[in-house]
Structures are given as C-alpha cells and as structure tokens.
Amino acid sequence: MPFNLPIFLTWLRIAMIPLVVGLFYLPDSWLSTSSRDLWAALAFIIAALTDWFDGWLARRLNQTSSFGAFLDPVADKLMVSAALLILLELGRVDAAIALIIIGREITISALREWMAKLGASASVAVHSLGKVKTAAQMVAIPCLLYSQSLFGINLKPIGQLLILIAAVLTVWSMLYYLRKAWPIIREKAI
C-alpha cells in the first residue's frame, strides 16, 4: 500500500467522519446547538476540500496509484452517507433523498466493480454529470448541517434546494451510467 500526501489527505477525510458524527452525540451542556452545527459544517467543508485537494496533488505530484483511486471514492461515499444519516436523524433531509443518494452510490460502485471484472471499466468512467452531482451535494450538506443564517442568508432553504438538485442529478447520472453499461451487461451476462 503506497503512502503519500494525497493518500494521507484521503485517510484524513475518513478520520473526520467520526468527528462530524460525534459532534451530534455530545451532551447538550458541552456545545450549544448553534456551535455544534457550525463545527460539524466546518469539519465537513474541510473534509470536502481534502477531496478536491488530494486529487489535485496526486496529479500535480505524479503520485496517483490504484490504491488511491480505490480509497478516494470510498472516502467520499462514507463521508456523504454519514452526513446524510445525521441529517436524516435531525429531520433536515427527507428519507427518500437520502435513500436515492446512498442507493445510487452503492449501485454505481457495484456496477463499476462488475464492469472492471468484465474488462469494461471505461464504459462507466467518471462523467461530468457525476461531478456536478457531487458539487451540489458538497455544498448542500454543510448548508443543511449548519441550517441557520450566515451573513443574513438562511442556509437551510439553500441546502434543501441543492440536495433536491443533487438527488435529481443522482438519478440522472445513475441512468446515464446504466445506459452506458447496458450493451456490455447484455452481451456478457448471457
């Protein structure tokens, strides 16, 4: 297993998941709800920034690896799923939206693994639609974690709109990947 700065940042993102989740289980006497929400949103933002930064560094420093290519999307899916489950528990995201987003991540991960076994991983390579979906999620989630006004702007409705957009893009991108893989699935599954 290679170890370099990009992989360290990916591990850091995974390590921040218990921090984000744990903040919501602290006794009320330790932090006010406002402080807890702020710290959770900031931790999520830092984790999301490491997602962008580790990929940039890996390419810039020529430190890409198959392990890093495996670990990075796992870290993203764990981070988003954990945050969605917290938001679901807080009543800040609808169960259907959480199910759509988490279900798509599981489905596409399984599809990519299967396509790789068939030697057709290029058919389900990351598409710009998936990147736009991820961007919408990564902005929506901290807005919903904080769910208060910041500089006079109420972040809750912004987060709700963006998570809805992310859910629509989630379904759209899943259908895109399934459509791209369908000819191979039909040919190889018979």
TrEMBL record:
GO terms for cellular component: membrane. It is a multi-pass membrane protein. InterPro entries: CDP-alcohol_PTase-I, CDP-OH_P_trans, CDP-OH_PTrfase_TM_dom, CDP_ALCOHOL_P_TRANSF_CS, Phosphatidylglycerol_P_synth. It is an enzyme of class 2 (transferase). Its EC number is 2.7.8.5. It comes from the Bacteria. GO terms for biological process: glycerophospholipid biosynthetic process. Keywords: Lipid biosynthesis, Lipid metabolism, Membrane, Phospholipid biosynthesis, Phospholipid metabolism, Transferase, Transmembrane, Transmembrane helix. Pathway: Phospholipid metabolism; phosphatidylglycerol biosynthesis; phosphatidylglycerol from CDP-diacylglycerol: step 1/2. The keyword Kinase does not apply. The chain crosses the membrane at residues 6-26, 38-58, 78-102, 158-178. It is found in: Membrane. Pfam families: CDP-OH_P_transf. It catalyses: a CDP-1,2-diacyl-sn-glycerol + sn-glycerol 3-phosphate = a 1,2-diacyl-sn-glycero-3-phospho-(1'-sn-glycero-3'-phosphate) + CMP + H(+). GO terms for molecular function: CDP-diacylglycerol-glycerol-3-phosphate 3-phosphatidyltransferase activity. Belongs to the CDP-alcohol phosphatidyltransferase class-I family. NCBIfam families: pgsA. This is CDP-diacylglycerol--glycerol-3-phosphate 3-phosphatidyltransferase. It comes from Sheuella amnicola. The gene is pgsA.
